[in-house]
Design brief:
The protein is α/β, with parallel strands linked by helices. 41% of the residues lie in helices and 12% in strands. The strands form 2 sheets. An 8-stranded parallel β-barrel has the order 3-4-5-6-7-8-9-10, surrounded by 4 helices. Strands 1-2 form a two-stranded antiparallel sheet.
Length: 412
C-alpha cells in the first residue's frame, strides 16, 4: 500500500527563495513570502469534518516514462496517484475520484478510468477512507473539444453505458457520482429524455447517489443540460427529477460558478438532499452558509488546498467562523486563477501545484495537458500559491519553477 506523500510541513521562506518570473510581460524578481506561521497552523493530519461532508476531486499522476501525448492511451503512475489519495484521506477529506479533475474525457480514457476506480476502491477499503467515483458515458467517445461525428447515440445505448460504469463503481465499494454526459446532452430532445435516462438509473440504485451538474465553463459540450439553455428552467427540471427520486439522491454537485443560483437551488431541494458546491470561485461563503443553510463540498480546488480545507473545516466544527474565514478566504485569488477561462484547463494548474508542493516529481500530464496553460499563467499561479501558503517548501517550489521556466526558454 502506498504511504502518504511526504511533504515538508512548515519550513520558512529564506532569502534565497526568490525567483525571476515573467509577470505582466516583464521579467520580475519575486521574493517568496515567509509563510511559516500560516503553514504551522495547517494540520498534517485530521479526521473527517463533522459539520460538513467534504470531497476533494483528485487528479491523476501521469507516468513520465511512457508516452502521454494528445490522443494516446493514458499511462498512469499508479504508486504516485494512490499516494496522493492517501494524503487526502489523512487530512480527513473524502475523495471524489474519476471526476473531471482526474481528466475524465480530457486525456484519461475509460480503460484507465476503470483501473483507477478499482485501485482507489481497494485503497479506500484498506484505510476506511470515504470514496465517491464518477459514473459517465465516456466509453462512447467524444473527448472534450473534439467535434462529434456520426449519429447521436440512442437513449438506450447511453443508459447501458452508464450501467456498465455504475457496476464498476459499485464493485469498488464507492459511492456513485452520476456525471453529466456529453452523449446525453447531444441525444436528448428535451427534459423528458433526461428524466427517462436518470429515472431508469435511479430506480436501480441500491444506495443514494450524487447527481452532477457541470456548467459550460467547464465543458461547452454540456450546453442545454437537463433540457434547457435557460438555467432557471434547467434548475426546475432537475428539481423535479430529484423530487421524484428523493430517496435515491444523496445530493447534487453544482459547478455553475454562480453563487446566487446555487443558493436558490439549495433552498429548493427536498429535506435530506444535499447541495455539494463545485463552485471554485465562491466556495468559502457557500460552505459557510447562512441562516437558511449551507453547501457541502465536492471541489477540485481542495486537491491543492487540502491542508487549508482541513484547517477550515476543523474551525467550522468548533463554530469558529473567524478562523474558518482567515484560513480559506485568502485562497480565493489562487483558486480563481487556477479556474480562469478557459476553465476546462484548470487541471493543468492543479497538477502544476502538486508538482511545486512536492507531491510528484514531474510536471507531465495524461493527454499532454501540461501544455494547456501558457507560461505567463503559470508564473502568476506560482505567485498566488506562494501568497496563499500553498507551497509547503518554498525552496523546492522555486527550484522546480526555475526548471519549468528553463524548458520554456526563460533563463534566470
Amino acid at each position: 500500500m502506498p504511504s502518504p506523500a511526504s511533504v515538508p510541513s512548515s519550513p520558512s521562506a529564506s532569502a534565497s527563495a526568490s525567483i525571476l518570473l515573467p509577470l505582466d510581460g516583464v521579467a520580475t524578481r519575486y521574493q517568496l513570502p515567509d509563510t511559516a506561521e500560516l503553514l504551522a497552523g495547517l494540520p498534517s493530519r485530521s479526521g473527517p469534518a463533522r459539520s460538513r461532508t467534504a470531497f476533494a476531486a483528485a487528479h491523476v499522476v501521469a507516468d513520465p516514462r511512457q508516452p502521454n501525448g494528445p490522443g494516446l492511451p493514458a499511462a498512469v503512475d499508479w504508486d504516485a496517484t494512490l499516494a496522493f489519495r492517501h494524503h487526502l484521506w489523512s487530512l480527513g477529506l473524502g475523495i471524489a475520484d474519476a471526476m473531471d479533475t482526474a481528466q475524465r474525457g480530457m486525456g484519461l480514457d475509460w480503460p484507465a478510468t476503470r483501473e483507477l476506480i478499482r485501485r482507489s476502491g481497494a485503497e479506500a477499503r484498506a484505510v476506511g477512507g470515504r470514496l465517491a467515483c464518477g459514473v459517465g458515458t465516456d466509453q462512447l467517445g467524444a473527448q472534450l473539444g473534439t467535434p462529434s461525428t456520426g449519429d447521436a447515440h440512442s437513449l438506450k445505448t447511453i443508459t447501458a453505458a452508464y450501467e456498465e460504469q455504475w457496476q464498476v463503481v459499485e464493485e469498488a465499494g464507492a459511492q456513485v457520482v452520476l456525471m453529466a454526459s456529453r452523449a446525453l446532452a447531444r441525444a436528448a430532445s428535451g427534459p423528458d429524455d433526461y428524466a427517462e435516462v436518470y429515472g431508469r438509473l435511479l430506480a436501480q440504485s441500491a444506495e443514494p447517489v450524487i447527481l452532477h451538474w457541470l456548467g459550460t465553463p467547464f465543458d461547452p459540450a454540456l450546453a442545454g443540460y437537463w433540457g434547457s439553455d435557460d438555467l432557471d428552467a434547467a434548475a426546475e427540471h432537475v428539481l423535479a427529477l430529484i423530487r421524484d427520486h428523493a430517496d435515491k439522491v444523496d445530493g447534487i454537485k453544482v459547478s455553475l460558478l454562480d453563487a446566487d443560483r446555487e443558493i436558490a437551488l439549495r433552498r429548493a431541494l427536498p429535506d435530506g438532499v444535499r447541495l455539494y458546491t463545485g463552485d471554485d470561485f465562491h466556495y468559502p461563503e457557500l460552505i459557510r452558509g447562512d441562516e437558511h443553510g449551507f453547501s457541502h463540498a465536492l471541489l477540485g480546488v481542495f486537491d491543492p488546498l487540502a491542508r487549508h480545507a482541513a484547517a477550515a473545516l476543523e474551525a467550522l466544527d468548533r463554530g469558529d467562523t473567524d478562523r474558518y474565514r482567515a484560513v480559506l478566504e485568502p485562497t480565493v485569488p489562487l483558486a480563481r486563477h487556477v479556474f480562469a477561462a478557459p476553465t476546462r484547463h484548470y487541471k493543468t494548474g492543479v497538477v502544476f501545484l502538486a508538482h511545486l508542493a512536492g507531491h510528484q516529481d514531474h510536471f507531465t500530464m495524461v493527454g499532454g495537458a501540461q501544455e494547456d496553460r501558457e507560461v505567463a499563467h503559470l508564473a502568476r499561479l506560482f505567485v498566488l500559491a506562494a501568497e496563499a501558503g500553498a507551497l509547503p517548501d518554498p525552496e523546492l517550489a522555486a527550484a522546480r519553477m526555475r526548471a519549468i521556466l528553463a524548458t520554456k526558454g526563460f533563463e534566470q
